[in-house]
Structure formats: structure tokens, C-alpha cells
Task: structure prediction
Amino acid sequence: MRSDEPSEDLLKYQGRHSRTIWPAADALGIEVIDQTLLPFRFEIRQLRSCAQVEAAIRTMVVRGAPLIGAAAAYGLALAMREDASDGAMATSIAALRASRPTAVNLGWALDRMHRILRHAPPAQRFDLAWREAARICDEDAESCRAIGRNGLQLIDPIARRKQARVNILTHCNAGWLATVDYGTALAPVYAAHDAGLDVHVWVDETRPRNQGASLTAFELGAHGVPHTIIADNAGGHLMQHGQVDLCIVGADRVAANGDAANKIGTYLKALAARDNEIPFHVAAPLSTIDWTMMDGVRQIPIEERGAHEVTHMTGLADNGELQTIRIASPGSAAANPAFDVTPARLITSIITERGIVKATAEGLSSLKVFA
Ligand code: MRU
Result:
């Protein structure tokens, strides 16, 4: 499927099928879904310059590691239309790279674009970049679809053994909205649901930005997957009482030793899963593996976001307007580390487009053989 064709595979929103990012019809920019407004409003934003793409990543209009990478690739392409000189290319790459620090797909996509562009004459750079960005999108969609197929192999035996509903816990949003299509952690869920398995998802609300309650719940609902939103602190209790069969989460960066960075709170879920002998899987494409880091806990940079996200919440008021209100005691300091790193020893397996591997240096490097 080409990047400008809508996906027919997932029901998205009010019968509308689409990817999360696509070239605008006039080819003067790209279009994305404004994720800051979901689940209350479904609005498309046009991004027509590198600066607009950089701002969309920084303000989380687009978010999720694979989608950030795809957006950055298009951002660089748009920069090449404005000014294709070496200097402008370096400046744009630096600006895009700095927009979010933890998701490695961002740097991965920019490095890939740079390799294609650096020896090309400036006059050809925009066309080359536009095509490469589209390829990155197509490949991400294909990778996520394969992650779904592979992850289904973990859910299916549980369904057969249990002969009852399979309960899957996920944290944050690692679905269609976090990628170009299908998702990472949710791709196996969609594959299982579409294969007729009875699956139900416990959706961690994922404070402080509530990507679970707003985005994961939204897209599972649009696809008809049974799900229940829970407070972030409820997971351990549900695990203790046999109400979780497996956990599947996404990742923003997986170090070469198998440590995996994901939305803040993931580590605590992995600890609770280990204490209750529940499988804890991380789903991620190869573009999320950082082969340069051998110790994720020590080396993965963790984005510190504004205290405002902790002290305030945004939601729909009774008058139908989106409103932001303070929920914390005025005057108290608040800290907001946006990600944490789950040590490899707590991860049962890593589900990739190339197969399911152990979260170890050996497991991950077995994927490299085919790279
Ligand atoms: O801060 P965000 O919303 O960009 O966080 C990224 C995520 O959605 C998660 O950490 C996710 O589980 C991994 S990205 C597929």
C-alpha cells in the first residue's frame, strides 16, 4: 500500500479510514491528526514547513515514537523545499532532533534521510527526501502489521488454554495513533480481535497526559475492541487477582541489552507483573532499537516535561468546551519525568517485525543478522 492511500484494515473514526500522517493533496505539505484534541475532537492539521512539523512534534500534536520519526522525515523534506543547502539541512536536522529527546525513531529517521541526501545535488534533495519520507511511512506500517502477526502468536495459546476472554494490560498509547498505522503494542490486540479471539484490554489512564484514557481507549473503541480504563495504580491489584493474562507495552527506545524506555509508570507495571508471574512483553519495530546503547537504564535520555502537565488537567467541560483546570495545591513544586526504563530482566520478550526475541543482547542481535 502506498503512503497516500488510506488503510482499509482498521476502522478508525466514524467510518473514516486513514493513516496518521499523509501528504496533503496539493503536495505542499503533510496532514496529521491533532492528537492534543482527541478523544473529543477529530481535527486534521496541515503542516507546510519544517518549523511547523518541529512544533507539532514538540507540542505533541503528533506523538508516539514511530510517528515522530515519520513526521521528522517529512519535516526535513519540507526544509529541503525551502532551502536545500548543506547549512540549511544541518540546521533543520538539529532542530528536529532536539524536539523530543527519548524516542530514538526521531534520530533514526533523520540519520536515514541524511544518508540519502548528503551526497545529492541540492536541486534533487527535495524530491529524494519526499520519496524517502513516504518510504519510511510505508515501512513503518508494514513493520507494525508484522508485529501484529507475530504478537498474535503469544495471545492465541493463552486463548486456547483458557477457553475464556484474554485480558491484556497496556500502558500509554502504542497503537495506531502512535505509529503510521496498526500500532506496536496494540497491533497484536487488533490482530487477535480480528481473528475472532475474545480479547479485552485494561487501559492504564497514563497520567500525566492520559494517553491511555484519551488515545488508547479512543482507538480501541473505534475498532470495537472491548476495553476498560483503569487508574494507573490499579494494575497491580488486578494482576494479584488473576485479572491480567499478559501485559503488552510499546517502547520509545530499546537499548541493545534489552532495557526498554516507555511512558513513565511502565517500570512499575513490569515489577508487578514479575511479582505475579505474568508475561510482560514489549512491542517495537527495529527502528526503536538503539544499537549504540548497552545499558538502557543508565544511558537512555529521559525527557523532563513541564510541571504544568502534573498540576493541571484538560478535559471536556459540560458546555462542550475543552478546559484546563488546576488539580494540585497551588505553590507546590511538581516534577514530570515523562519516561522510565524497564530493565531487560523484567521483560519476557520483545515483539518485533522480524520475530519475537528475548530481551537480551543475544536476542536482539539475532535480529541484526537480517538487517
Ligand atoms: O510522550 P508520547 O505520547 O510521545 O509517548 C510515547 C508513547 O506513546 C509511549 O511511550 C508508547 O508506549 C511508545 S511509542 C509506540
User: Anything to note?
Assistant: The pocket of MRU is lined by residues 63-66, 172-174, 178, 184, 211, 249-252, 262-263, 338 (CB under 6 Å).
